Amino acid sequence: MSSRMADARELIRGSARRPLLAVGVLVLLTVPILAPGQSSLATEALIFALFAISVDIVLGYAGLLTLAPAAFFGLGAYSVAKVVVDYGQSFWLGFPVAIVLAIALAVVIGYIPIKQRIGNVYFVLFTLAFGAIVTDFTTVTTSLTGGSNGLGFFSPPEVLGIDLGDGLPYYYFTLLIVAVFGLGIYRLISSDYGDVLNATRQNELRMRYLGYDTNRELMIAWIVSAAVSALAGAVYVGMVGIASPSLVSFGLTGDVIIWIIVGGTGTLLGPFLAAIALVFTQELLQTIWQGGYRLLLGLLFVVFVFVFPDGLIGLIRGDE
Predict the structure, then answer these.
(1) Which one-letter DSSP state was computed for residue 113?
(2) What is the mean pLDDT of residues 157-182?
(3) Most buried of the four, 10, 69, 72, 74, by CB within 10 Å?
(4) Averaged over 157-169, what is the pLDDT?
(5) What is the pLDDT of residue 18?
(6) pLDDT value at 313 more than 70
(7) What does the UniProt entry say about where the protein is found (predicted)?
(8) Which of 140, 92, 130, 104 is nearest to 237 (CA)?
């Protein structure tokens, strides 16, 4: 009886996904038109949603706590700003530069704690050190990064006669990027590789005995996460026109980790929705209570860690 009920619940969930997905797509396509004054905020929310699901690959699926998400996000932003402002090159050239640099640094940082498997604690420490180095580097090296003033200002170019510097076109450009890479991440996680990654998180020793190269699987997740985080940062700097130290701060790292916990680690959709909701909530609270957002994040962290560990998605699914 219980198995039949479980199958019935799964059938209902599956049949409800398509109309919900259609509604979600419709909302994303029309929100900047229905609320034209909020197109920049909607763009920011989409970018941070992509950032959240990129970090969820490592945190939720690989089971590795990283303290360097903002470092890679900021790396993407500074790469584009450097290419455009200091070298006078195309805005578009900054994107592959950001991704390649992120991949290279991810390989260097992840090699010892992941490839050599010296322990997850050391992975946390390595990412903490990397995040601290990047934060200090962007603040101290004024000649390279602009120091506390940041590196900018610039705006995206025209594409087919469309000025991407305008809020509405850049929103749809961002939506396209998020759709392509978000779908790519979903397909990756839904593949056999995703199953292996999940199994590795649950019992790495057993997966090794079964002949899987768990170090390689974890390394792939780490590299993909870093690359997409850098891409999100590159898209973000195109919107704001300046790369600043706040983009590599531990505050942003804390934000994205809480978004993932609130949404539901290892779900992709949960962090995606939580990031969007909390970005809009932050904007709302700034007009009411300046310090309210940080207090809210702290409360949400405690509630969802100790009371609802499966996050919003777990609540929606009715997980016990």
Answers:
(1) I
(2) 85
(3) 72
(4) 77
(5) 63
(6) yes
(7) Cell membrane
(8) 92
